[in-house]
Amino acid sequence: MDDGWGEALIRGELSPIMLFHSPPGICLMYMYSALYVVIEGWQDLGLNDPKIDDLIQSPFVDRLRRFRNATFHYQKDIISLKHLELFGTEEERTEMWLRDLYSELSRFFTKNTMPMPQSIKHSIKNKSMTEVFTDIREYWFPEENSNNAASRGRL
């Protein structure tokens, strides 16, 4: 088993369910769960894109919601049925739907978000997360920053 989880699965040394307890499986669980959070935001913000809107009409969305719940909320069972039901049957090809949804969301947000300015990229190198947040906030919301400083008597 020292050549990795994938090879052990291929050789039949591990059941596919054990993937959930492997480092790549844990990352996939987190990624799939976070994907549902993006769907919630998409719907709450009223964003529109024909390809994405079509994909999120799928019954897989509710399964993904339950998967997210099983990942981020306590479950009595080590492997929750909520995790397993996402993948359904082989004919359903849920993994293809997940791939397509991720790809389309990536396409949309790459096309529709502003790139990070070079001055910010340069200013955040080797800084703590708090300092990075502060630099980004000051760049994008300078008036809010000066109002906060003025209200604290700093201007």
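That was protein one. Protein two is written in the same sequence-then-structure order:
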Amino acid sequence: MKALLPKRFLLLLLLAVTVATVTAVSFSASRAAQRRFEKKECLDCHTPFAQKIAPLKSTHPGVKDKDCESCHIRHGLVGKLVLKKNGNELCLSCHSKEAIGLDKKHVHSALQGGARCTSCHDPHGSNGTHLLKAEGAENCFSCHDRKPFEKKVVHAVLKTQGCDACHVSHSSDQANLLKAEPTALCLSCHKPKDAAFTKAHENYPVEKAACTTCHDPHASDLAALMQESAHAPVLQASCDACHKDAGGAEPFAVNASGGELCTTCHDKADLAKGGTHAHGPFESGDCASCHDPHASHQPKLLLRAGNALCTSCHEDQGKSVATEHAPLTGGDGCLSCHGPHATKQEKLLTAELTELCTGCHADAKDADKVAVPHPPVAGGDCVACHDPHGSNFQAMLKDRPDKVCFTCHADAEVNFAKSAVHQPILAGACTSCHAGHGGANPKLVKKTGSDLCADCHGEMMKPDPAGVTHAPFSGGDCTSCHEVHASSVAGMLKAPQGELCLSCHSDLKDQAAKAGSRHDAFSHGDCTKCHSPHQAKLAKLQLAPEPDLCLTCHKALSERMKGANKHSPVDECSNCHQPHFSAQARLLQQPEGQLCGNCHDTADAAFGKAHLGIDPAVMHCARCHEPHASKDPKLFKANVHPPFAGRSCGDCHVVPESK
């Protein structure tokens, strides 16, 4: 009995805990339910949108059913309404291609590439059928220019039924989205057995031909929807002027072949207008290569508009270029310069080449009358340099300017292949310096002397009134030192620096040959290490004052001078040294003892005592002293013989007795 009590107690305790847990969970769930957000419809917030959509005749099911999330992500992104899928992919997730007729060969351009269904349809609602933004042709006119469809005579079905009468909206197995093969589509309304139909077509079986050969399917300013440019026999319903009898075995066969048929009405000599150079198709009688024998949307029955007709054969002239010839892009296009049938000039030009070019380019008219004309200009050969149809180079040049020039100046191309080339030559910009057509100066240069150089180097060439100028530089004679195009010497110099400078400073050349020592820079012809070749603020065109100029090369000496006792003349190197060469070693101005004696009185008693009475004439000062700087106050060298350091010369030398 006693053993049962603990078990009952444990069961009661477990039951109590379970009840408490269930109660707590129920209470927590109840509180959570109270805290849950109450769901609201999208239109509860987007009220302006709801008010806009409400009165529309047709609404998208997703809008009608308030199922915005069928297309949109619930929260989207800040500042952006995010769709579940991109573009047409979203629409096609419900509207299959097969269901909406989007599975045919020819697809509406509004549904290709980056275009979207929303080009025509409103995704939420509209007053048009199928959610169209506008009804009938008006919807089409949002992309298609309405002018060609609203001429004097409009196709009846276009006025009454709109574009849908002949075209499908999404895709078709027929070109131009037609509902059926073109002729069959026309014959679905126009019955070929009707008396009026047969009379209008002179009993010819036109139901076997293409109606659009003569008629515009949309609108025209001519009766019976004839195309704007119609052949006279077509307008006069005189088909038999060109074709066999309507009742014959071959009613559409022509009465004569090719150009022979055309010349029964059109006099070939009149069309040639005295021209001796004929267009190939005109010469061979292939009129139909350019003209439609029945009707066309282009003037004069042309098969294509403007230049497109010419470039259908002359493909190279139809390529897109960076620099277009203005007449080709406006006005009469190709016919601005060429005749269509025959002319008296080669290449069907309507006038002599120079006359033709200067008719527009009046500034080039007198180019051959300048003092120095460019030979091609003087010869009227504009196309020697320019492509008359346009090019990918400036001024319609046939190639990069230098390549054009090299076609005549072939020697220049070889001569310019050097290590130092003038920047305009590198860039192929010959016309930076030379006038392409002609000018007043020799070699066609735009300006003479340094004035030409100043166009680019103007900042460097500004005179400094307080400075010193190199004579050729001040005289504007740049070419006395520099090549104008290219050189094998740095700086485009005419010769290596030393050689070039000594061609004027010949006195230095003669003296240097007899010198005992030469400045390294002078020996190697590096004159510009010390001198400016143009102008400087210092005498003798020095680049910097002493000793800075010298220390730019003598860096080790510069380091030794830092924090050392400097020899007083060291701040002016020329106190002791010659700049170019000297009869003495180390470019010294005088023999060593004599040079030092200019400042140090060797006859002075103190000097004699300090030097143990040794004869100054036999001394070599630099054997013991640093000539520039030293840590020692007496400028002794850093490493000295110990007896010398202790001034005990007698340990090694026989010291003369003092007198």
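Residues 45-179 form one domain. Keep this in mind for the problem set.
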